[in-house]
Specification:
Layout lengths: L1 E5 L6 H12 L3 E5 L4 E4 L6 E4 L2 E2 L5 E4 L6 H13 L3 E2 L3 H8 L1 H10 L7 E2 L7 H7 L5 E5 L8 E4 L2 H13 L4 E5 L7 E8 L2 E9 L14 E4 L4 H14 L3 E9 L2 E8 L5 H7 L3 H11 L5
Parallel strand pairs: 1-2, 1-6, 6-7
Antiparallel strand pairs: 3-4, 4-5, 8-11, 9-10, 9-11, 12-13, 12-15, 13-14, 15-16
Helix pairs in contact: 1-9, 2-3
Length: about 290
């Protein structure tokens, strides 16, 4: 097979591991910077050009699309799909998961437990928004933030109103969510590939930080999930249409709730903590879907 990894960071751990595993199995592995791809659309003949050369003979793609370039990255993925090439992460699922509001709406619709969340347009509704999610403290999130960036804990009503009003005044879309105190700055990431949980870890935020992201200095340990917890992660990924996903869950008094679903989860943390070869599971997934209609 010829497998193309859409990545702007060929030296990143995730990209290097995928290349390493695929090459070891005899596959031709190529890394394409999706921002350098040119899409040519004509009737019945979709094409992708990379550095002036048409991309041909690709059997599968593995998108590693950053949040800041979701629009263009998803367009590149969609172009490959039009060429009947299998994608480990489908373009529509990528777009669906990146919008935190849309993602939570989709999950809530099918009964997935999520943090109580509020979304508003006018700064004049701020007090109501805070009250609707249970009052202070609250979590304020940018709709397209990632790796813990754009996530704020407001511990007083004055600070919450100030932050929310500032974002809304400049027309930045945000979510306001309940603060889950019992999580104590920790969450669980379940890594799902093709409808199976292939690894799970408990992440704990750095001292004094409520965010559990490893990129923000947090720590992690392996965790064994119950069949019910696995089913929750799998159902969340499946409903969003994600073949590869990192499902982040918070422990609460009412059980686990799904906080976010990541469509380009990093491999380094989960592989090092669990010892599982997650990259191999993703290559397996591509191998099983080499031929699609």
């Amino acid at each position: 097979m010829k497998i193309a990894i859409l990545s702007r960071s060929p030296e990143s751990y995730s990209t290097k591991r995928l290349v390493e595993v695929g090459a070891a199995r005899g596959h031709e592995m190529v890394v394409l910077d999706h921002l350098k791809c040119v899409l040519v659309i004509e009737q019945g003949k979709p094409h992708v050009y990379y550095k002036g050369v048409e991309v041909t003979d690709v059997n599968a793609i593995i998108p590693r699309i950053g949040a800041s370039v979701t629009f263009y990255g998803s367009a590149v993925v969609r172009q490959f799909e039009m060429m009947k090439i299998f994608s480990a992460v489908e373009s529509q699922a990528l777009v669906r998961s990146r919008d935190k509001l849309r993602c939570l709406q989709q999950l809530a619709k099918i009964g997935i437990p999520i943090p109580k969340s509020a979304f508003a347009y006018s700064p004049r509704t701020v007090d109501d928004v805070i009250d609707q999610v249970g009052g202070i403290p609250v979590i304020i999130k940018l709709l397209e933030g990632t790796q813990g960036l754009g996530v704020i804990l407001a511990e007083t009503r004055i600070s919450a109103k100030s932050v929310i009003e500032a974002f809304l005044d400049v027309q930045v879309n945000i979510l306001v969510q309940e603060f889950v105190k019992e999580a104590q700055g920790a969450d669980v990431r379940a890594f799902v590939v093709d409808g199976q949980v292939v690894g799970a870890m408990r992440r704990k935020g750095a001292e004094g930080d409520f965010r559990s992201n490893l990129h923000r200095g947090g720590s992690a340990e392996v965790v064994k999930l119950s069949s019910q917890e696995k089913a929750l992660a799998i159902k969340s990924a499946r409903h969003l249409g994600l073949g590869v996903a990192g499902v982040d869950m918070l422990p609460t008094k009412r059980g686990y709730i799904v906080n976010e679903v990541n469509s380009s989860p990093g491999l380094e943390g989960i592989e090092k903590v669990t010892g599982n070869d997650i990259a191999a599971k993703i290559i397996d997934y591509c191998e099983r879907n080499e031929h699609i209609d």
